[in-house]
Amino acid sequence: MIGILQNKNLTDAKMKKLVDEHWENVKKHIVGKKNNAVALDNINKEVKKIFGASVSFENIVKADYIELQRLKNMWDLVTNNSKRKKIKGKALYGKIYDKWRTKHGNQLVKELELTVCAYCNRNYINGGSGADFDHFFEKSDNQIFALSFYNLIPVCPVCNRAKEYYKRRYNGKNKQLPTHISPYDNDKEKATDELLTFSYRYITATDCEPYIKRIHNPDMKNNVEAFKLEERYSIHTDLVSELHYRAMKYN
Ligand SMILES: [Zn+2]
Questions:
Q1: In this structure, is residue 183 part of a structural domain?
Q2: Domain boundary among 172, 205, 236
Q3: If you placed Cys at 223, which of 30, 91, 142, 180 could pair as Cys (CB 3.0 to 4.6 Å)?
Q4: What is the pLDDT of residues 156-209, one digit of tens each?
Q5: What CA–CA distance (Å, rounded) separates 196 from 215?
Q6: Of the residues 108, 143, 172, which one is the last residue of a structural domain?
Q7: In angstroms, what is the span from residue 57 Cα to ligand 1's centroid?
Q8: What is the CA(50)–ligand 1 centre distance, in A?
Q9: CB of 155 within 8 A of CB of 118?
Q10: What's the CA-to-centroid distance between 236 and ligand 1, angstroms?
């Protein structure tokens, strides 16, 4: 996994700029039949009913990683299901997201300086249509966060699909999806590149097998399961064995 915010170029000031620009881009796609400002007002009315008078849609889109967790907890606690259903049933947020994705998605990946998928740290996502966006909090259950900056994780299509299957498996069992770690979680115990490393162990002097090293945080096990990282990294077995064999032979 790549801890996105551990990139020294992504300073607080740079991230604030990206988040502000993101909000401006999102606003362009909030289109009313007659008046766009009225369309945004209507969204804000819905938001306030759920999150209270002090929260606007802008706050939801711009919320930093910690604030987003807080808002998500509030969202989960909404007991008046009709309020939640009203938003859930709306295709509105999904539609705004689709427009945003087409127009601005690739630019965001570039600005975040990501060339490789944040989840698997393996597949390239730069250039062309290489990147998908995983909604860390599923879009289907959390429409309201469909455009929240820190809910949008640039990933490769393989990881995005893997999460879809993972989700279905859990939904099938009617269980809550276990939490995995977000590449935006900047807790130094969490989203670091070191937390999940790729190594190999010897079987014989000329044979070895790669494996994934997990350090410290047991939550990482859900990332490994959701994105099938063990299986995907084991493809490199032949290559590692070959390199190891050569090293043994020529040293
Ligand atoms: Zn990936």
A1: no
A2: 172
A3: 180
A4: 999 999 988 888 777 655 556 667 888 998 776 665 666 666 667 777 766 676
A5: 7
A6: 172
A7: 30
A8: 34
A9: yes
A10: 15
